[in-house]
Amino acid sequence: MSTQPSKNIDTFDNPKPERDFTIRIDIPEFTCLCPMTGQPDFATITIEYVPNKLCIELKALKLYMWSFREQGSFHEAVTNEMLDDIVKVTSPNFIRIRAEFNVRGGIYTSVIAEHKDDNWKAPELVNLP
Fold first, then answer.
1. How would you label 32-58 residue by residue, b for 16+ Cβ within 10 Å and e otherwise?
2. Is 34 known to be catalytic?
3. Computed from CA positions of residues 58, 62, 68, 73, in that sequence, does the dihedral angle turn out positive or negative?
4. Which residue in 10, 20, 32, 41 is the catalytic one?
5. CB within 10 Å: which end of the chain, N or C, has fewer?
6. pLDDT tens-digit profile of 15-73?
């Protein structure tokens, strides 16, 4: 198994495709570079998704996130690139990526990008007493 950065995202079969469930992945040590200054940007990335037929393999996801370390990207661009790449390989029912960037120049940036399959209906929220 590789220990080098990679843009490949491996998957595995959803063990319960007949059931909607949410997978949440927190990545607290994401880094990329500011495209204007070349300085490092640090963020916590949270991926929440309802898988369809495929799930994200976590080691491959780690190597994928590592591949951004030397890439200059605006916060908005890198968040949407992640969303597009993951949707392309997994075709989830729903996915939300939240990127919470650390302070830069006295400003915090949060970017949230979502995708919903047109044929998927979200389950109703259950409120217990």
1. bbeeeeeeebebebbbbbbbbebbbee
2. yes
3. positive
4. 41
5. C
6. 999 999 999 999 999 999 999 999 999 999 999 999 999 999 999 999 999 999 999 99
Domain ranges of the chain: 23-115
Q: Residue holding tokens 């916590």?
A: 44
Type of residue found at 109:
T
Overall size of the chain counted in residues: 129
Residues with Cβ within 8 Å of residue 123, at least 6 apart in sequence: 20
Among candidate residues 34, 85, 117, 118, the one labeled active-site is: 34
Q: What is the 3-state secondary structure (H, E, C) of 61-112?
A: HHHHHHCCCCCECCHHHHHHHHHHHHHHHHCCCEEEEEEEEEEECCEEEEEE
Q: For 115, list phi and psi in degrees, rounded to 5.
A: -145, 140
The class that CATH gives domain 23-115 is alpha beta
